[in-house]
Amino acid sequence: MATVEPGIARHYDISGLEQRILAALADTGVEIAHLRAGDLEAVDEFHIGGVAATKALIDQMRLKPGAELLDIGSGVGGPARFVANSAGADVTGIDLTQSYVDIATSLSKRTGLAGKTRFVQGSALDMPFKDASFDAAVILHVGMNLPDKAKLMSETARVLKPGGVFAVYDVMRLKAGALTYPLPWATDETMSFVATPDDYRSAATNAGFSVTAERPRGAFAIEFFATIRARMAAAQAEGRKPPPGVGLVMGENARTKIANLTAALEGGILAPVELILRLG
Ligand SMILES: C[S@@+](CC[C@H](N)C(=O)[O-])C[C@H]1O[C@@H](n2cnc3c(N)ncnc32)[C@H](O)[C@@H]1O
């Protein structure tokens, strides 16, 4: 299992990413010396639907201010900063990719959120946290890299307090059909472990969760990428640079990754799905 992890971390590791993010924002007139978390939202939410998707998920959790929230696979920290800011949660992010942990830490410092967010390197399948450490947990677009959903669920159940909510927003398989790589989460099929909502539900219930809500977000996802395409086309037509977006964190072949994902979404093979789980 752990043998796939170094390759997955290399897939995500992009050289000079923080400087690229800051340069792209500076280009649009953002004052980097006075960066606010909101300035980053076009580029630090590495999942379909950006900050709107994060908000839609978090709103279902009814977090109390000061809640201890775990963000599993926290990327460069956009969702963690959003929840710290909007819900007043104290967020711990864990991520496999060391450079993302470093960037997330640095961006939180730059945006004045170092006291409300912290990021550690580690695997979702073997988390370095004590039992019952957190009030709630989220995972956004990470399960596609996890070969063992049962372990994800049992590890999350272990670190949550009784009654804790676990909000999942992952790309799942809705029907059979071939996938074309690269995808945003995988260079090739050796690092992709997309599962069905059924797989998630049964892993969750076996770990002691009950499912309190479930919502497929396929139409929302297709609309999200259509809006991005329209923005790019408008910029090109007007001879402007396209505005920075989620493609920035996907590296050089971002367009191919997005095109392959869009084809699978439009074919109804894949869709992001929200699952709200409660422990006990
Ligand atoms: C598509 S990004 C999503 C990042 C973040 N959740 C967000 O929505 O902005 C997937 C993230 O999962 C992380 N990841 C992949 N496998 C992991 C594992 N076994 N444990 C922890 N993080 C993992 C990657 O390093 C990457 O940051």
Descriptive notes:
- By secondary structure, this protein is α/β, with parallel strands linked by helices.
- The chain has one domain: Vaccinia Virus protein VP39 (Rossmann fold, 3-Layer(aba) Sandwich).
- A 7-stranded mixed β-sheet has the order 3-2-1-4-5-7-6, sandwiched between helices.
- Helix 3 packs across helix 4 and helix 6 packs across helix 7.
- The two termini are 28 Å apart.
- 42% of the residues are buried.
- It binds S-adenosylmethionine.
- The site of S-adenosylmethionine has 26 residues, from helix 1, helix 4 and strand 2.
Distance between the termini: 28 Å
Task: Give the helix/strand class.
Answer: alpha/beta
Number of helices: 9
Q: What would you say the CATH architecture is?
A: 3-Layer(aba) Sandwich
Q: Remind me, CATH topology?
A: Rossmann fold
Order of helices and strands: HHHEHEHEEHEHEHHE
Strand content: 15-25%
CATH H-level superfamily title: Vaccinia Virus protein VP39
Would you identify the regions where 5 or more consecutive residues have pLDDT less than 50?
Answer: none
Specify the helix fraction band. 25-40%
Q: Using the CA coordinates, give the radius of gyration.
A: 18 Å
Number of separate structural domains: 1
CATH class: Alpha Beta
- Overall shape: it is globular
Major beta sheet, strand line-up: 3-2-1-4-5-7-6
